[in-house]
Design goal:
- The complex is a heterodimer of chains A (492) and B (491).
- Chain A has three domains: 297 residues, no CATH class; 117 residues, no CATH class; 57 residues, Arc Repressor Mutant, subunit A (Orthogonal Bundle), CATH 1.10.10.410.
- Chain A has 492 residues and is α+β, with helices and mostly antiparallel strands.
- Chain A is built from 15 helices and 16 strands.
- In chain A, the strands form four sheets. In chain A, strands 1, 2, 6, 7, 10, 11, 12, 13 and 14 form a nine-stranded mixed β-sheet that branches. In chain A, strands 5-4-15 form a three-stranded antiparallel β-sheet, with no helix packed on it.
- In chain A, helix 12 packs across helix 14 and helix 14 packs across helix 15.
- In chain B, strands 4-6-5-10-11-9-7-8 form an eight-stranded mixed β-sheet, with helices on both faces.
- The relative contact order of chain B is 0.14.
- The model of chain B has no long low-confidence stretch (mean pLDDT 96).
- The chains are: A alpha+beta (492), B alpha/beta (491).
């Protein structure tokens, strides 16, 4: 745990500290399921992606999907975690119609990945390190449909047997902001690695959040587990609510019952789902149908060699090589697609060293700003990386001013086209002809003698003159030249 | 035509190749025998049309010289093996009229090699039992009777239907499965040959699971040669069962008649039980003497953890069974009882669908895996299992090639005679066989003599992992010395 300060909650008896740990269920990106050849495609007709193994027909046996193993190991490497060359699949026994075998194949005592860590960015440029306890592979369950018949429930086994990675954090998280930052960062890493699509709406990434409270420095309190959260915003809200609920109980002299709770986003509250007494005895034992999962260090090393650059490495590189601020670099690398877009812009720039930083500003401010305004994401941007690079080239080489560039950006956004050709055809080129600009400058000074006289005492009013000249030139005058000329003519 | 049923598989193969008779004739002879022997209750499903169709198809192939190693040989299939389009129930009500859309790997390999399916054979419900009395289709009769008695005896279990059908000449061989002795004990009770191969030798894919780490398929036949022929087709690596082993399958038949000179036979002192019938003791010495006469060396060996095998087995097997049988929940296939909600659906379907012995084992298994009991029972049983395995490894490391033991502590008993009050009385039947499953080793039971009442008794040979060949060679020696045993027909 890093030294980042965290939020304490004020109660009537003083400050309280939250202790939070998370279990994230991340659906492994793979074509087929963890132990069967059935497709993992989302949105098929109910029960159209179900093999005999998934339906637990008599005599069927699971066979491990090697791709899922590779994905889990890759994820472990991305979390700087211990990779266990030998791990064991266990059966977690419970009856439920979405689990045809009557047990879930999971990993209990010997997971495929052990301890690791994730660095998360917090507001104000602070960071925290959240420990990873373990990552294990397990089967997802099917889905019950209660709305198809008044008297029956139906079951769809399409998801049943799809591989999940359960990523368990250490109880290192201390407030809702850290929790949100942790999920955001973990999701980003998984997406960079290509091991999980991170689509929380489709349920590809779900979190169980364990929350307890204590007086700072006191021993751990009793925790409650909030199940199945599939929105980062709701995770934050649920933690805040749950911590306050627990503090209220404790301050009233009550006790926290260890239980499983659900968050209701409409009411903004958590409510009890089942108590510890109702908790299942899962009767875990090693699955006798599967041999222990064993692979060699060279298998791990091969995957390690293929690891893509991860957000933290990319950020460091952007800061060191391009001189970006840490903040800008973080914004650019947060989503894999944004980083890819920015890097494509860089590749297309005529002068990367000169304009790399300008490009970052354009991507973050103009592009992201505009995308946000229209509720679009980077993959659907009307201005592509090549076009944006061309606009930045035009600024860098002095062909257009920054202001004109914004107009040009708007045109490309609306109409598309080659920015360089547009500048040509629409006469947007910056005027750098000294005599032409000088004439305009002289005219403006002559027309405003009072202001010209005052400017020596009030140098800040130079901006007014610049504005007038730019206006008169239709924005095409080079701002640098205008500035220089005005200064010399006004004698400041 | 009834003569055809008394042929051994090897003899039938010769006759078919020489076109002395056709597979259809051979098949029809067996179908008639099955019909005449319904009182034995060995078959729970006869598939005469399918049998004739398969036989005709094979006859055409034989005519073209394309028949496989088992071309035209009619077999019975234990109802634990999934057979595509043919009801498969594991002899449990809970599977109801379940008809698989798939064929088990083992049976599909038999059909690949030209065998013909006569029907499905009775067994203890989910293979849980040692007398074939727990089947939802009722008990199976042993074709053997005590001299001068009309009492129907059990054929042993769980592969009672297989053993009874093979002994009564209803099929030339049968598939069976063995989790704690379910091939070897019924073979011993019926004077047939049964081999449980090394764990991993046969694919478990498509066989209704009892205890996954112990279950293994194998044949029951009327001679060691016949068993060797069947095992060759049944065995082999299957990518669909990751516990099956990727090793070439030897020509087991080539081991029949191979010299056993210099082979070292261990006689484990721990198998000499207190109160063991003198007849069993005598049979054991006789078997040892036959092997010695054939050139084998005898050495006394110790398997010190033998006495813990049965209790440990009755923890491990039910534990796995309790989990394996969780899928029979009334939701997707098989029996579904009326219910107001899902919990009731489970309770009613499982209460109605499972028999008493299955329920007992599911409860034992659930108990030993429960939080707080896991370490004391399941984990300790697994440790015992490791020690049992090590006992055998130590033995083999000292140069012992195979171990000779009695197959069962007694001959066949009457239906309803045992286990009524105390299930452990029934469990004791497996005392000589469970160690072999716990260690994952191959074991063969061969007929070796009769008791004073004229009932057959068998001997067991235990081999090194994947050394089934030595067991066939040794089994043949005993078979040659002891002769063949055929029951007098009373049905």
């Amino acid at each position: 745990m890093s030294t980042a300060t965290h939020k304490l909650l004020k109660g009537s008896t003083g400050d309280w500290e939250m202790v939070i740990g998370m279990e994230i269920h991340a659906q492994v990106t793979s074509n087929s399921k963890l132990f069967s050849g059935a497709s993992t495609a989302f949105g098929g007709e109910p029960n159209s992606h179900v093999s005999l193994v998934d339906a637990a027909m008599p005599g069927m046996l699971p066979v491990i999907n090697e791709e899922c193993v590779r994905q889990a190991v890759t994820t472990g490497l991305g979390l700087n975690a211990q990779i266990n060359l030998r791990s064991v699949f266990d059966r977690k026994n419970y009856f439920y119609p979405d689990s045809p075998q009557g047990y879930q194949i999971s990993q209990y005592k010997s997971p495929i990945v052990g301890e690791g860590e994730v660095a998360v960015e917090l507001d104000g440029g602070k960071t925290a390190t959240i420990g990873i306890e373990r990552l294990h592979l397990e089967q997802d369950a099917g889905k019950l449909l209660h709305d198809q018949s008044p008297t029956m429930s139906y079951v769809d086994l399409n998801r049943c047997g799809v591989a999940l990675m359960e990523i368990v954090s250490k109880p290192d998280i201390r407030d809702a902001e850290q929790a949100k930052a942790y999920v955001t960062k973990l999701r980003s890493i998984l997406r960079y690695l290509g091991t999980c699509d991170g689509d929380m709406e489709k349920g590809s990434l779900r979190a169980d959040v364990n929350v307890s409270v204590r007086k700072p420095g006191a021993p751990l309190g009793t925790r409650c587990e909030i199940k199945n959260m599939n929105s980062i915003t709701f995770i934050g809200q649920a933690i805040e609510y749950e911590a306050r609920r627990q503090i209220e109980i404790l301050e009233d002299g009550g006790q926290i019952d260890q239980e499983t709770r659900l968050y209701d986003p409409n009411k903004g509250e958590t409510r009890s789902m089942r108590s510890k007494e109702e908790a299942h005895d899962y009767r875990y034992f090693p699955d006798p149908d599967l041999l222990p999962l064993e692979f060699t260090q060279s298998f791990v090393d091969e995957l390690k060699a293929k690891l893509p650059e991860l957000p933290d490495q990319k950020k460091t590189r952007f800061v060191a090589d391009l001189g970006l601020s840490a903040y800008d670099a973080s914004v650019l690398v947060a989503e894999r697609e944004s980083a890819v877009f920015y890097e494509t812009v860089l590749e297309n720039l005529a002068n990367r060293a000169r304009d790399g930083k300008v490009a970052a500003n354009w991507v973050i401010n103009e592009l992201f700003g505009r995308l946000n305004k229209e509720g679009r994401d980077i993959t659907g941007s009307p201005v592509n990386a090549e076009q944006l690079a061309a606009i930045i080239d035009l600024i860098g080489e002095g062909t257009i001013s920054g202001k004109i560039a914004k107009d040009l950006f708007e045109i490309v956004w609306q109409e598309g086209g080659d920015p360089r050709a547009l500048v040509e055809s629409r006469g947007m080129k910056q005027v750098t002809d000294l005599s032409a600009i000088e004439k305009v400058v002289d005219d403006i000074i002559a027309a405003n003698p009072d202001k010209a006289a005052q400017v020596k005492d009030k140098p800040q009013s130079l901006g007014w003159f610049v504005g007038q000249v730019m206006k008169a030139s239709g924005g095409k005058a080079s701002p640098q030249i205008v500035n220089d000329l005005l200064k010399s003519k006004l004698g400041i | 035509m009834t003569d055809l049923t008394s042929l051994t598989l090897a003899e039938a193969r010769k006759g078919l190749a020489a076109k002395t008779f056709t597979s259809l004739e051979l098949t029809d002879a067996h179908l008639s025998a099955i019909e005449a022997a319904r009182v034995l209750n060995a078959f729970v499903m006869e598939t005469p049309d399918r049998a004739r169709d398969m036989a005709k198809a094979v006859d055409e192939k034989i005519a073209k010289g394309e028949g496989g190693p088992l071309a035209g040989i009619p077999l019975g299939i234990k109802d634990l093996f999934a057979t595509k389009g043919v009801r498969t129930t594991a002899c449990s009500k809970i599977l109801g009229n379940f008809v698989p859309t798939y064929e088990s790997t083992v049976t599909s390999q038999l059909w690949r090699d030209g065998a013909v399916m006569l029907g499905k054979l009775n067994n203890d419900e989910f293979a849980m039992g040692s007398a074939n009395e727990t089947s939802c289709f009722g008990p199976v009769g042993n074709p053997w009777r005590r001299a001068g008695s009309n009492t129907t005896l059990v054929p042993g279990g769980s592969s009672g239907g297989s053993a009874s059908a093979v002994a009564a000449l209803l099929c030339m061989g049968a598939t069976a499965t063995d989790t704690g002795g379910s091939i070897r004990q019924p073979a011993a009770f019926t004077a047939t040959v049964g081999i449980k191969p090394t764990y991993g030798r046969c694919s478990r894919w498509g066989i209704v699971a009892f205890a996954s780490s112990l279950d293994q398929a194998g044949p029951i036949a009327r001679s060691t040669r016949d068993a060797a022929m069947l095992l060759r087709s049944m065995a082999g690596h299957d990518p669909k069962d990751t516990t099956s082993v990727d090793m070439p399958v030897p020509d087991y038949e080539a081991a029949i008649g191979r010299s056993v000179k210099g082979i070292r036979i261990g006689i484990p002192k721990e198998y000499r039980l207190d109160g063991m019938p003198a007849e069993i003791e005598k049979l054991w010495s006789e078997g040892a003497a036959w092997l010695k006469a054939a050139g084998a060396e005898l050495v006394e060996v110790s398997l010190p953890h033998t006495k813990y095998a049965l209790p440990a087995y009755y923890i491990v097997a039910p534990a796995e069974a309790s989990s394996n049988l969780a899928r029979y929940d009334g939701v997707r296939y098989g029996l579904r009882e009326q219910a107001k909600n899902i919990i009731e659906l489970y309770e009613n379907s499982r209460a109605e669908g499972f028999g008493a012995e299955v329920k007992r084992r599911v409860m034992i298994g659930t108990y030993v895996l429960s939080a707080g009991y896991y370490d004391a029972y399941y984990l300790r049983a697994q440790k015992v299992r490791t020690l049992i395995k090590k006992d055998f490894e130590d033995c083999f490391a000292k140069g012992v090639d195979a171990i000779l033991t009695p197959a069962t502590p007694s001959a066949a008993f009457g239906i309803g005679e045992k286990g009524g009050a105390d299930p452990v009385e029934m469990y004791l039947n497996d005392i000589f066989t469970v160690t072999v499953n716990m260690a994952g080793l191959p074991g063969i039971a061969v007929p070796a003599g009769k008791d004073a009442q004229g009932l057959p008794l068998g001997l067991q040979l235990i081999g090194r992992p994947f050394d089934e060949e030595t067991l066939f060679s040794l089994g043949e020696v005993i078979e040659q010395a002891a002769g063949r045993f055929t029951p007098a027909r009373w049905w």
